[in-house]
Amino acid sequence: MAKQSTQTLALLNQLAADEVETAMQILAHAMQQLEQAEQQRTMLEQYQQEYQQQWQLAAQKGLKADLYRNFQAFFSQLELAVRSQNAQIEQCQANVQHKRQLLQEKQRKQKSFEVLITRAKTLHAKAENKRDQKMMDEFASRAKRSRL
Question: If I label 127, which of 3, 15, 94, 134 is the partner at 20 to 30 A Cα–Cα?
Fold first, then answer.
């Protein structure tokens, strides 16, 4: 019975380990999405800086009103894109945090099964030792009686 219990716990532990592995892969994917979003924001910011420098150079040379409006409109669109990217990054960060918590829960569950397996093996070993001691005591007792 104890062996079956240990086998069941080992199976549950393996399933929990598989869940941990899956959760790790999901977390890695979420972290990759976050990194990509941050890289995209960096590219947008660099483009925004370059565009602003071009605008300043053009402004020094003098701009027509319609060209000035076009620069301003496009620059506003870039600012909007950067803000939108920042919002996406915040979502990705929240997602990474959530996936991290799920992974920690799965790891705690697996650790619980490992503790239960260790306890079951310890109890089984104690019972085995107790049986062995009882057999040794009986053997010693019989040996002593047979000598008398």
Answer: 15
Which amino acid makes up residue 69? R
Q: How many residues does the chain have?
A: 148
- Please count the helices (runs of H) and the strands (runs of E) in the chain: 2, 0
| Phi/psi-derived region of residue 64, left when phi > 0, alpha when psi is between -120 and 50, beta in every other case | beta
CA terminus-to-terminus distance, the chain: 40
Can you give the pLDDT of all 148 residues of the chain as single tens digits? 567 788 899 999 999 999 999 999 999 999 999 999 999 999 999 999 998 898 888 888 887 888 888 888 998 999 999 999 999 999 999 999 999 999 999 999 999 999 999 998 899 899 999 998 999 988 888 888 887 6
Torsion angles phi and psi, residue 64, rounded to 5? -80, 160
- Between CA 24 and CA 107 the distance in angstroms is 10
Predicted TM-score (pTM) of this structure: 0.76
